[in-house]
Amino acid sequence: MKIILTHEVSGLGTAGDVVDVRDGYARNYLVPRGFAIRWTKGGEKDVEQIRRGRKIREIASVEQANEVKGQLEGVKVKLAVRAGDAGRLFGSVTQADIASAIKAAGGPDVDKRRVEVGSPIKTLGAHQVSVRLHAEVVANVGVEVVAA
């Protein structure tokens, strides 16, 4: 099935790309979550608008991405969450939580879709997350999860 991506999907493409995926993946995952729309001749006109919007939001050059990477890696991010006695969290820390904690710690504004957490954060302590700033630049950020 041919679809137009409206958001960046890891391993598939960026917003505005027209890609061909399996029918079930598009019907059951991408379209219901708003990551893509079905490709039509009329929808092809929307591609240019999506690409213009992406160009405004994205980091334009590798130099700019390296500058933001330096800012991110210099920020100490502390995230207070509810936890039990054994240090296990009630739930887990999400990408949106991390993005807002980076902003609150004085770091640059980061899109939650660019934050990559290797495995779900469900315990207190220090954790490493990656922020994909550009196709070639990834910043590693240390997140300290503490009990609230």
TrEMBL record:
Sequence ranges assigned to domain Ribosomal protein L9 in this UniProt record: 13-40
Q: What keywords are assigned to this protein?
A: Ribonucleoprotein, Ribosomal protein, RNA-binding, rRNA-binding
Q: Which domain of life is it from?
A: Bacteria
* InterPro entries attached to this UniProt entry: Ribosomal_bL9, Ribosomal_bL9/RNase_H1_N, Ribosomal_bL9_bac/chp, Ribosomal_bL9_C, Ribosomal_bL9_C_sf, Ribosomal_bL9_N, Ribosomal_bL9_N_sf
Q: Give a Gene Ontology cellular component term annotated to this protein.
A: ribosome
As for family, the record states: Belongs to the bacterial ribosomal protein bL9 family.
Q: What does this protein do?
A: Binds to the 23S rRNA.
Q: What is this protein called?
A: Large ribosomal subunit protein bL9
What lineage is on file?
Answer: Bacteria, Bacillati, Actinomycetota, Actinomycetes, Kitasatosporales
The encoding gene: rplI
